[in-house]
Amino acid sequence: MEPIITCDNLVKIYRIADLEVMALQGLDLKIYPQEVMAIIGASGSGKSTLLNILGGLDEPTAGSAVVAGWNLGRLTRSQRLVYMREIVGFVWQNVARNLVPYLTAEENVLVPMILNGKTDRAWARELLEAVGLGHRIHHRPLEMSGGEQQRVAIAIALANRPKVLLADEPTGALDTRSSRQVLEVFHHVSRAYGVTVVIVTHDRNMAYAVDRFIEIRDGKTSVETVRRRPLSEGEHIEKDEESHDEYVVLDSAGRLQIPPEYREALGIGNRLRVEVEDGKIVLKVPEAGQSQEDSPEEAGEQQDGQGFAG
Ligand SMILES: Nc1ncnc2c1ncn2[C@@H]1O[C@H](COP(=O)(O)OP(=O)(O)OP(=O)(O)O)[C@@H](O)[C@H]1O
Ligand SMILES: [Mg+2]
């Protein structure tokens, strides 16, 4: 299957005054049609930066990001508007940012359609049914719970039948039960309307509730975790021992990241021996004496001996 989202060596540098922040450092990523997947990572790892680029809100500094055939590094202003209106839908963590407070749920879903010149009240109602709010169409945001408001936000994001739904910490402000409902709605609308869902979160429990999640570390993808068997409609979404497989990802040049906890546990420096044994690739920590640069003690002695002052 062809990916619907491809990032290739994606770089994003922010400049403030004469300070540069490299938020994405050559990130590679493929996402397939109708996946419900998550991007996880610590604060500052580049999750929102990535999502803003995929949503057309921000431009890559280098590398490429292609979504549904749209090359996001090469859009004109008017193409960008069409892209944001028709190809992607956004759900934000801040519940209030998603909804207009003085409009009903139904009117809120109509807004993006009106802006796009295609008002369809029946479709708005269908979407509210799909997110489980058929009985709330005349309620205003203040008359709904946070979880209900986020489900309206999903209906709003789907109003113009986008191919991709992007959600930045959509359950960040919700309790566990409402979070789970919101996740189930993402699964449901993906199946019902064939939309691809990308959810950013720093919550591992949330990540285990999707088919696949990718961890970003320092602006690059590092580990990928895949559910062995996709969830079926209405299935309970819990993690257990057997439910997921974890992979370390290679970048486009075949480079491998060894997770820091393994490097620390085995005392790995800056090189490893790579050998193929019985069809397996074996990474070996060089024995003492095999490599000078590797040994922290020796490096330390050199520094101590020579010093940097002179
Ligand atoms: N508009 C901006 N201008 C300057 N620097 C920025 C901007 N946006 C993000 N950054 C920096 O880029 C890096 C990545 O930020 P980003 O917001 O993508 O992280 P994040 O993974 O979403 O974090 P969080 O979990 O806290 O939301 C951080 O070092 C951040 O300070
Ligand atoms: Mg963020």
Task: Describe the protein in words.
- The protein is an alpha/beta fold and 310 residues long.
- The protein has two domains: 5-248, Rossmann fold, CATH 3.40.50; 260-306, no CATH class.
- Helix content is 31%, strand content 26%.
- The chain has ten helices and 13 strands.
- It has helices at 47-54, 77-87, 95-98, 105-115, 121-130, 146-157, 176-193, 204-207, 260-266, 296-306, and strands spanning 5-16, 19-31, 36-40, 62-67, 70-71, 88-91, 164-168, 196-201, 212-217, 220-227, 244-248, 273-277, 280-284.
- The chain is globular and about 75 Å long.
- It starts with a strand and ends with a helix.
- Bound molecules: adenosine-5'-triphosphate (ATP) and magnesium ion (MG).
Compact overview of the structure:
The protein has 310 residues and is α/β, with parallel strands linked by helices. The chain contains ten helices and 13 strands. The protein has a seven-stranded mixed sheet with strand order 6-7-8-3-9-10-11, sandwiched between helices. It has a four-stranded antiparallel sheet with strand order 2-1-4-5, covered by helices on one side. A two-stranded antiparallel sheet has the order 12-13.
